[in-house]
């Protein structure tokens, strides 16, 4: 279809056949971009892409967030924070969550479009998930990730991407984006300027696997280049990362965006080039399609100065429009299954119950002396206290949406206990500072109570992103791993006065050290930032409606002295894979209300030839009195760790349900590529030798058994 667009000075024919859904997306993109002026193309290379009326292209803002629910865009279901989802060790659940999020996103998009809201956060291109390795527990944004292990991160991240993007062969439900590429996990206060220079071994063993998995397995539509430099080149201008690895080695065919302000930072933060025009040029050359920010508006000058060609702008623009066509938000869409999702899907009961399920499955029982949990709902005098017992802020985690249904822990417990229960509540302590009033009766209430449930921890005011964590003394990060001093002192007062058992409920997005109080607590629950149904989920676990089943996706050190320097990206001494000191709680650990026994570990072969898969099975039995979910974990440890090999590595996991008294046979297939090690040069190699295969429900260590994990099974194999 040709239309003549007239003015006083010119007349131009517009070919609107790019709207024809019978044409391929590549054809439609070619037809559209060929008709755009240089200025029009440049206007589409920033996140706030303006409308082009003569081509009937609407304005669109690429910046949208959906880390654990639609964020910053009104009413939406709030799921547990990413680290809590990681604690479920359940990729299928992650995909269900992401699918629910994308359903709400499509429904909200339809409503927004009808009311003319094309603003930031109201679109379908979501800059999530965050798959940076949580290498240091001081990092404020580690809560956004799925933990410290590359394999767990990959499995959960791929599932989340699939849920967001849907399974239609032609159209995207929403567009996911893997961030922050690459080698980016603090410190927050230098995130715009630091240069990460890990060994090639650490790069390929730790920092890149999740990104590779999301590209090659998850088919993620977008990748976000980080603020920092890698090997001296800013990530958004790093041809090694964006071209050699991402495009060539991995075959990525989606769009690349900068982090917000990162292109401008190439000149004004990194000082890599002298001017913003040069910054825009080097980023575009390296492969960054989209500038979150405004620096790319200078690309017309870059063309005029001969720094780049219009042909390169054409190429980068086409990749962006390909994503918009795949979403079906330009022109007509034929057989797009995502165009008629009703608004009643937004914060629907099904999604609320899913949020509760995720929160239930994310809670980690770290301690349960004398089986003090679960509690009876007919308990006479329970005492709920602590600065976050009735806090809605604690539920949310960073990058949150808004909901009218935020259930605090006090509310959840109130709904769970008997109507005849004399439930008492006092906050007892301020979140992050000493009480102003020296008089405080709250600790004395514990002396009159059958059980004291104390809710302590952090919020995203204390740990989070550089610009958001207003109570952080280190621009988003934690200075140490301790609870705030006033909270520690309050717990100590409760320990002094309590009559019944003390149940400590810890809310945080990162490891919190409990040195000095852990030994006096009868039970400890780690609940992360559990989302809008957090209060109900905690009550479900406390009173035995469901057994806890979360497992730690990150090691909990005893104190900061066990950690290497925060600004070092060397992995030695970090995470369960390289840490030699005994932590407070190990990676993969988590108790249930029952007992698990592993038996009958069977290998198909214990001597493997090069490129042969490892196949094995194990029987898992629930010998206790509660139905449970268990996370069966498979680790491989080399007998010879020379060459900086990991002490042990997670190579497989399966979450299973077991009725009391039941047993299940669980099978694993570890692909031959997973059996290879990454050498000092960053290359994967089949390294001959002896290895231990260990199957259990926690990472292999004597501490795991000491804390109550099942006895693992071990067998040797040879490669």
UniProtKB/TrEMBL annotation:
Signal peptide: none
Entry keyword Endoplasmic reticulum: no
One Pfam short name: Fn3-like
Organism: Aureibaculum algae
Superkingdom of source: Bacteria
Domain Fibronectin type III-like, chain residue ranges per copy: 630-699
Matching PANTHER family: BETA-D-XYLOSIDASE 5-RELATED, SUGAR HYDROLASE-RELATED
UniProt KW keywords: Hydrolase, Signal
Family stated for the protein in its record: Belongs to the glycosyl hydrolase 3 family.
InterPro entries per record: BXL, Fn3-like, GH, Glyco_hydro_3_C, Glyco_hydro_3_C_sf, Glyco_hydro_3_N, Glyco_hydro_3_N_sf, Ig-like_fold
GO biological process entries: arabinan catabolic process; xylan catabolic process
Molecular function per GO: alpha-L-arabinofuranosidase activity; xylan 1,4-beta-xylosidase activity
Protein name as annotated: Glycoside hydrolase family 3 protein
